What does this fold into?
Amino acid sequence: MPAGGVWIAYDLPGSYEELPPNLLDELKRDRRWCQGNLMNFRLFLVRGMHPVHRAVFLTGVMSYLSAPLWFMFLALSTALQVVHALTEPQYFLQPRQLFPVWPQWRPELAIALFASTMVLLFLPKLLSIILVWCKGPKEYGGFIRVTLSLLLEVLFSVLLAPVRMLFHTVFVVSAFLGWEVVWNSPQRDDDSTPWGEAFMRHGSQLLLGLVWAVGMAWLDLRFLFWLAPIVVSLILSPFVSAISSRATVGLRTKRWKLFLIPEEYSPPQVLKDTDAYLTMNRQRSLDDGFMHAVFNPSFNALATAMATARHRQGHILEIARERHVEQALNETPDKLNRDRRLVLLSDPVTMSRLHYRVWAAPEKYSSWVNAYQQLALNPLALKTK
It folds into this structure.
């Protein structure tokens, strides 16, 4: 690609793409990305690949492989502590051994590992806040608020990191086992997580955190001190997942000018135009759009033009299309669930056949005609231009 003159848009200062509205939706997206990054890593060894591109592939795969590595490190550390706590130390390992084998303790290695981890985690945050202070923190809420936002973001990251570690570990294992991943469009609108779903998805993590904490407290309370950020995060995972998904929490922090960015302090014109368009689009939303796409000629033409499938031909494909049309028309419209409607809407040929048949034989498909006639009149559906 570089030889062909393809460049990354390096001049773009940022993106308006937002995160999914809650932790569970973000993890669903991470599972798709995990599988994609692992699949693309085979390009890492392709001959002629630029070193920068190799680094991109390596960074992408390690963003998920680091989770099982971290989990194995914690598991082995815990297992080692269990062995030390439950067994007597052996200083003489062989018969008639003259000198004892003393256990070795290398604190400099532990300190180096801890220090390097802290630098990797917190140095980018420290440099970014210094840059904001130097450029002027007014657009970020002011000096005090932007500093408080950084501290709260660090706390929130500490609470979420162990949760992501366990989920990403499962994602990596499932990818290697070949488990199927559904590639649906991610949720973008505000969508809070119910308490029941939060405890169902994070219940195993809560249980693991409790067992881990109780076991380490019984064996060695000093080791629990080092594990506290992990086990506390796992125990609180259902509560953090549910509370952080509430839109009211985000609106409240916005009123307090926390986590503020310049685009929120002084919105650019493109964001103002986008908000105005979204408001107008919601006001002009069409109820029962699927039924109008089947019966109304204008909406049917629009639906077929926007269908994601192509006008492909083939004997097997024609049999599948005919089966979908017949199965749909032989049932009442209310029996079609969302997935079946999406299958019909995705194929322009299928939508055209549905439209033709309900108009060509209204007596035969009276259940569809009656259902359409019972719909409330919508001014948008009356416009044919």
Summary: The longest helix spans residues 51-86.
